[in-house]
Write a structure and sequence with these properties.
This protein is mainly beta. Helix content is 0%, strand content 48%. The strands form three sheets. The protein has a four-stranded antiparallel beta sheet, with no helix packed on it. It has a three-stranded antiparallel beta sheet with strand order 7-8-9, with no helix packed on it. Strands 1-2 form a two-stranded antiparallel ribbon.
């Protein structure tokens, strides 16, 4: 989470922005990527696959307006180039908290929703937990 200001080579979008940064094994800075809307956006989890691709899970406010957040999943290559960015969610609040990659590079994301996710049971009230699997 980035409370104020901008990171090198990035511009703050407003509110709170999320970011991911890479350092080498000696602790030397490699790159940073920042994302955000005019609302509060957060990085919640990070994972790396066998090829060095970096996966980020978090939340972002809708780019089309509204008060509710969407779960966010992003994939960067080992050089920091954005390969995928996807919002997951409903018309209500949705957040991604955790992300993991297995030995076959399948990606698992966990989070919570206040709405009804497609292909899942109806919301049982308040926030419901969810898990999703993505194959490479």
């Amino acid at each position: 989470m980035l409370p104020s200001g901008s990171l090198p080579t990035n511009t703050r979008a407003g509110g709170v922005d999320g970011f991911v940064a890479k350092y080498n094994s000696n602790g030397a800075f490699q790159w940073t990527k920042q994302f955000g809307t005019t609302g509060n956006d957060q990085s919640q989890g990070i994972a790396v696959d066998s090829l060095g691709n970096v996966y980020l899970a978090g939340e972002t406010f809708r780019t089309s307006g509204g008060q509710d957040s969407q779960a966010l999943v992003a994939k960067y290559n080992s050089n920091g180039r954005l390969l995928l960015q996807q919002q997951i969610g409903t018309a209500q609040d949705d957040e991604a908290f955790g992300i993991a990659v297995d030995a076959a590079d399948n990606v698992y994301i966990s989070g919570q929703t206040f709405g009804d996710l497609a292909g899942a049971d109806s919301n049982k009230g308040k926030y419901d937990a969810w898990v999703a699997k993505y194959r490479p």
